[in-house]
Design brief:
This protein is of the alpha+beta class. The chain has helices spanning 14-23, 62-80, 100-112, 123-129, 149-162, 205-211, 283-294, 348-366, 390-399, 415-422, 431-438, 451-460, 482-500, and strands at 3-10, 30-33, 50-51, 85-86, 90-94, 119-122, 137-141, 145-147, 166-168, 175-177, 183-186, 191-199, 220-229, 240-243, 255-258, 264-267, 271-272, 305-315, 328-330, 338-342, 406-408, 413-414. The strands form 5 sheets. Strands 1, 2, 9, 10, 11, 12, 19 and 20 form an 8-stranded mixed β-sheet that branches. Strands 13, 15, 16, 17 and 18 form a 5-stranded antiparallel β-sheet that branches. Strands 6-7-5-14 form a 4-stranded mixed β-sheet. β1 (3-10), α1 and β2 form a beta-alpha-beta unit. Pfam families: DAO, Fer2_BFD.
């Protein structure tokens, strides 16, 4: 007999995880079905980490509603979850005089959405704010902020788990049967029952919608590539630096964004693709990102780049149309009992808290529930010793000597932080699961120094060599022992000799 839940959330991205945490405030049985080996492995973990103010979204749109509401909540939201957040501000730069009038339109859009303290500044004022940036003028958006997107998603999921939510990793949904109150949801591992469904499947949200008979939407994957710059150039900018958005473009243009950890991101590009899993990076786009960013920030070179990554936008408009569609956040008549969250691209990270509150109200209108006495309002996953004072670190070492052993020298990550990451609340144990919880392997050497030591710690904590993967699935780190490989090679040569006779 299948296990019964009040609500099944399909998708463990930032929106799905935020909904899980919000619903965990109440006495409900909740599960999250995530197809990957960890949360934050899709769009939610591979974006700019920008907390948008609402300056780029049309007044009256669904995007604007949730973006503006969430922006006001975000700082406290991150504080409750011990997630890095910085209000660094943003300048939207006009490269030449011809783009200066466009700044007025952006300012008007932002003011319509209630964004405070917007100001168009001239070249001289821009130079005072950003000495290294070239431009004819800019729109200054001082309330814009940055947060760590993967840390937020992980914290939401882990805190929800601590409050009683069941998060099932490696559980892609393959079929849905039934109706409201009695849905049967199939995965390769099991079939579960749920009274209500929240479709928060990102790039696959249109496919999930079709499983419940809704054929209104198609999601178009649009890849955005980024490069990450070394921390040694992190001081070149003080705030986010955006271009005037390209008209009809699939994104907001190549921007220069500081991260909460001191690096700089360049990107993203915008390239439609037929494969939502095709998150390759290319030398061509890396060159393009450096070239376009260099128009604002001269002097950047390939030597400043430490790595690259890409994520996918779930677009509701095809390439030939261009631009942006609005968010879909609704229950539709073809599928009662299913909340459809489709086309949640930028500013999806920012909008997540308010979307979660909206979905929670929808659930509780259908399933009255009291408060959950076990709800964890605050959460802290892995202690970041690199951010602490020397005296605090001394006290931590006195309690646990593992805090005194640096494993990742680039990012100053200790043994205890890595062990805590291995023993995370979700049970995700790949190298990337450790990476995105501790920052180990994220520095200049990209794991060249600390990678083998992390493998040792995995073995010391009960993992077998054969079970260790880079990112779950079949991304195995080891093929076998050298003894086994020699024996296999010897047997193969013997077989070849017999065949030769």
């Amino acid at each position: 007999m299948s296990e019964k839940y009040d609500v099944a959330i399909i998708g463990g991205g930032v929106v799905g995880s935020a909904i899980a945490r919000e619903l965990s405030k109440y006495d409900l049985k909740i599960t999250v079905l995530e197809r990957a080996a960890d949360v934050a492995r899709g769009t939610s973990g591979k974006n700019s980490g920008v907390v948008h103010t609402g300056i780029n979204v049309p007044f009256g749109s669904v995007k604007a509603k949730f973006n503006v509401a969430s922006a006001k909540m975000f700082e406290q939201y991150c504080a409750d979850l011990d997630v890095p957040f910085k209000r660094v501000g943003k300048v939207i730069v006009a490269l030449g005089e011809a783009e200066v009038p466009d700044l007025e339109g952006l300012k008007a859009k932002g003011e319509a959405n209630g964004v405070p303290d917007l100001e168009i500044i001239d070249r001289a004022t821009l130079k005072k704010l950003e000495p290294n940036i070239e431009g004819a003028g800019a729109l200054n958006v001082p309330t814009a902020a940055i947060a760590c997107p993967y840390s937020l998603t992980i914290a939401l999921a882990e805190s929800a788990t601590a409050s009683g939510v069941e998060i099932k990793l490696n559980s892609p949904v393959t079929g849905i049967k039934g109706t409201e109150g009695a849905f049967e949801i199939e995965t390769p591992n099991e079939t579960i029952s749920a009274g209500l469904i929240v479709n928060s499947a990102g790039l696959n949200s249109d496919k999930i919608a079709r499983m419940v008979g809704v054929h209104r939407w198609r999601v178009w994957p649009c890849r955005g590539e980024y490069v990450i710059l070394d921390k040694r150039v992190g001081g070149l900018i003080n705030s986010m630096v955006y271009p005037v958005p390209p008209k009809g473009g699939a994104g907001l243009g190549i921007h220069i964004t500081p991260t909460t950890d001191g690096n700089i991101l360049l990107g993203p590009s915008a390239d439609y693709t037929n494969d939502g899993d095709d998150v390759r990076t290319t030398a061509k786009i890396r060159r393009q990102l450096l070239k376009e960013a260099g128009e604002f920030l001269p002097g950047l070179t390939p030597r400043d780049v430490i790595t690259a990554y890409s994520g996918m936008r779930p677009k509701l408009v095809p390439a030939k149309v261009g631009g942006f569609g609005d968010f879909v956040v609704e229950e539709v008549e073809e599928a009662p009992g299913v909340m459809q969250l489709v086309g949640i691209e930028s500013p999806g990270l920012t909008a997540a808290p308010a979307i979660a509150e909206h979905v929670s109200e929808w659930v509780r209108d259908r399933i009255p529930a009291g408060e959950n006495s076990s709800f964890q309002k605050t959460w802290s996953s892995v202690h970041r010793t690199r951010e602490e004072s020397i005296s605090t670190v001394d006290n931590l070492i006195a309690e646990d000597p593992g805090y005194g052993e640096i494993v990742c020298r680039c990012e100053m990550v200790t043994k205890t932080e890595i062990v805590d990451s291995i023993n995370n609340k979700l049970g995700a144990s790949s190298l990337n699961a450790i990476k995105y919880r501790s920052r180990a392997t994220m520095g200049r050497c990209q794991g060249g120094f600390c990678g083998p030591r992390i493998v040792d710690l995995l073995l010391e904590n009960g993992k077998s060599p054969e079970s260790i993967t880079l990112n779950g699935g079949d991304s195995w780190l080891f093929l076998g022992t050298t003894e086994d490989l020699r024996a296999e090679s010897k047997a193969k040569r013997a077989k070849q000799k017999v065949g030769a006779k």
